[in-house]
Structure formats: structure tokens, C-alpha cells
Amino acid sequence: MTKQILLNAFDMNTPSHQSNGLWRHPRDQRHRYTSMAYWQDLARTLERGLFDGIFLADVTGIYDVYGNSPDTALSNATQVPTNDPFAIVPVMAAVTEHLGFGVTGSIPYLHPYSFARLVTSLDHLTNGRIGWNVVTGYLNSAAKGVGQVQQTAHDARYDIADEFMEVVYKLWEGSWEDGAVVLDKAAGIYTDPARVHRVSHDGTYYALDAVHLCEPSPQRSPVIYQAGTSPKGQAFAAAHAECVFVANHNRGVVAEYVRSLRAQAVACGRAADDVKVLALLSVVTGESDAAARAKFEDYQSYGLRQGALALISGWTGVDMAKLDPDATIAEMDSDGIRSIASSLCARTVGEWADYLVVGGAAPTLVGSPVTVVDQIEQWVDDTGVDGFNLAYTVMPECMEEFVDLVVPEMQRRGIYKTRYAPGTMREKIFGQGPRLRAPHPAARWRLPTGDADQASAG
Fold it and tell me: Distance (Å, rounded) from C-alpha 414 to C-alpha 79?
């Protein structure tokens, strides 16, 4: 392995993301998730560890598939209560200079006009450190929360997402010209109206006739994240995504996904390295293998198996309360998260309940820094991924120990950076300009600027 890996912290604005029950651990501080100080301390730790970003998951709705009730999710803190992920970005950005923010926004519960304004505002406030994780939703409880009978079918959600992307690209890239803000105090002209353009869209799912409310931000369009693994999801990611999140314990499956995704990106006219793939991972480390193993076993003793089953039920759309603990989860065609549904098939219901209490759905590496980094290198060599989304266990100690123990070992081997690159989030990740370039579909709507790398509006 010679390339330097990318690294995000995988988190959520909630007391318990995926390691079900570890909020009970005496050293865990996740109950402080409503505190600005908690998120600022975490942001400082991640920047000290040179993390590329924090990837903020989110779910609209409550996990009520298990037992046909939200009670287990509520009592076990299975991703509830949960606060808005976008709200904590300025809080963390205020105490950092380089850390990026990949924030989940679920298309079925957003409108492109107001969402475009939110993202541009945050890109301004962070000086170009915003990414957007595009998701299409998977919980019927979320659909009911906005007045629908049930969520739209899986593949149709991606059709809606394609049109949503077109609308926000038009707003971000095609409404304001570079230099539209002249700030001429003498003439009393802040913005040149001739350089601001109305966006008109009349599509299948969205209609819009408006001017984008924000002047251009450093990146205009945010760094686009995506996690689709179904055929529809992969096609969407190949066309739009810059960073793709994959979660699977089988390295062979991940390697095939990476090859397939990059081939599809090339078929869309993009370069294979225009798409960075980050795999889900969890780490429990200590000064020695024995110390790490003892810590892992200690963590396991605080897990809540029912909370884990409530999580799996929500992911798959299948009520695990109705299944025997010794049953293997069969292949299923659900409107939940297809990648999770397929990866569960290798284990029984009971095994997954036990497994998810430490690290959640992530493969969990346990050992000394040398042992952990050996395995990290093997993961990269076997799969071709560009880096990892690091899921937490007991907070904040797991991130502090990773920064203090694992990061120096990765740096010693030359597989992790020793300082941040300058520029926006996109510039740091890709080593090129701050804006999306042709043939990415966003560039179709870009206004002429004289820059050879930028396409004219379509």
C-alpha cells in the first residue's frame, strides 16, 4: 500500500448512533450531544488527528418496525432522540480551520429551493468545507411524518433524486455569475442585476421559477457524498457522487463494488479517481492486543441487543421480533437499505444483535496500533477503497485513542498525511479547484466565466 488514506469520523446528532447501548458505559459522554461544548471538543480532537471530515448521518423518522412499535427504539436510544445534523456544523466550524463536514440531507423531506440556500449559507460560513450526503430515505415513519401514507418505492426515490439534483445544480451553478456582487459603495450598487439569473424548472416532481437567494460560495456545489449500492443507487452515485460510502464485512464484496462503481463512473465520462470510496470501519485499540481485547469485551457487556434488532428492523423493513434468533436472514427485496439487507444474510438474527452492540454495522478491528494499522492496510490492498468512515464506540475516548495511538502509526508508515493541504474541502480531497468540473452534471448549468475547466450553461 502506498497511497494515503482518507478518514472521516462517522457520527450522528444523537446519544446513540450504531453501537447500541454503549451510552450506558460509565466513561461514555454521548448524553452531552445537546451541548455545543461536546461537539466543539470533538471537532478539535478530529482536527488534531488530521481527519478529512466528520460524516454526519441522519434519519428522518423513528425506528418503529421492530414489534410494530417505537418503544424499543425510545427506551434503548436507538437513534432517538435525534437533533438536526446541519445545526451543529457552524458550532464545530467555529473552532476548526480544516475539518470538513459531510452532512446527510434526505431528499423526500426537503425542497430544493430552501435546501440550496441552507447549503450555500454553510459553505460560506465554513469557507468551503461543506459536503452533502444525498439520501433517499427508508423509513415509513418518516413518510408518515410529512403526511404521506408510506414512502415512495425504492427505485422511484432515485428518479426523484435525479431531478432534485438538477434543480439544486441550476441554483448553485447557474443563477449568480462570478463577480455579480460588486459592492460598489460609491454608486450604491451591491449586486449587478444583469449578472443574476432566474432559474426556471418545470419537471415531473419539482417546479421552480426563482433566483437563488445566496451569492456564490467558495465551492458553489458542496462535495457530493452518496451511499447507494442497489443498481439504481450505483448508477446515481456514478453520475453524481464524489465520495461514496460503502458498508460491508466481506472484502470481496467491497472490492467488486469499488470496481463496478468506478467502471460506471468512467461510462458516465468521468475519471475513475473522480470518485473516492470510503468503507465503514470501527476500531477498538489499546497499548497492546491484550489491552484492546479486554476493552472490547468490557464494551460488549454494556450492549443492548433489542436496540440492535430495532435498528436492523428499520434498516431492512423486516420485523426482527418475528424471527427466531437462530434464523439466518434470507435475501430480501425490501424498500429499506439494500446493502444492509444483503450483508446481513451471512449471520443469524442473534449473531447480528450481538455484533452490532460494538461498532454497529462496521467491521471492528481490535488490537494494538500496529495490529490495527496492519489490518487497515490489508483492507485497502484487498478492496481498493480510498479510506474509511470511522464509527464510534465509547465517546470521546475511542476517537481520542485513535488520534493518539493509531494516527501516529499510520503516519510512520507513510499512509496518512502529516499536515492538511490548503483550500476548500474539495481541494483537500482531490487536489484540484474548488468547484465541480465537467463532465460532472453540475457543470452543465454553470454560467460562462472564461475558465477553460468550466462548461457553459446547458
Answer: 37
| 223 bridge partner residues | 131
- Please count the CA atoms within 13 angstroms of the CA of 84 that sit on its side-chain side: 9
User: What pLDDT is stored for residue 144 in this prediction?
Assistant: 73
CB atoms within 10 A of CB 271: 10
**Angle in degrees, CA 131, 88, 304, rounded to 5:** 100
The type of residue at 284 is V
| Contacts (Cβ under 8 Å, ≥6 apart) of 363 | 249, 279, 280, 281, 282, 379
Query: Per the structure block, which three cell numbers stand in for 120?
Result: 450555500
DSSP β-bridge partners for residue 135: 106
- At residue 4, φ and ψ (nearest 5 deg) are -85, 135
Mean pLDDT by 10 residues, the chain (458 residues): 91 95 97 98 98 95 93 96 97 98 91 97 98 83 67 81 96 97 98 97 96 98 91 92 94 95 96 96 98 98 94 88 81 48 67 88 96 98 98 98 98 98 98 93 82 34
Q: Looking at this protein, which amino acid is placed at residue 206?
A: Y
Cis peptide before 70 (omega within 30 of 0): no
Domains and CATH numbers, the chain: 6-298+361-445 (3.20.20.30)
Spell 330-347 as b/e; 16+ CB within 10 A means b.
eeeeebbbbbbbbbbeee
pLDDT of residue 338: 45
Q: Is the peptide bond before 112 cis (omega within 30 degrees of 0)?
A: no
> Strand, coil or helix: what is 18?
coil
Residue 9 β-bridge partners: 54, 390
Q: If you ran DSSP here, which 8-state letter would residue 345 be given?
A: G
Q: Report the predicted TM-score, pTM, of the whole model to 2 decimal places.
A: 0.92
Strand partners, 278: 245, 387
Distance CA 186, CA 416 (A): 50
C-beta of residue 66 within 8 angstroms of C-beta of residue 80: no
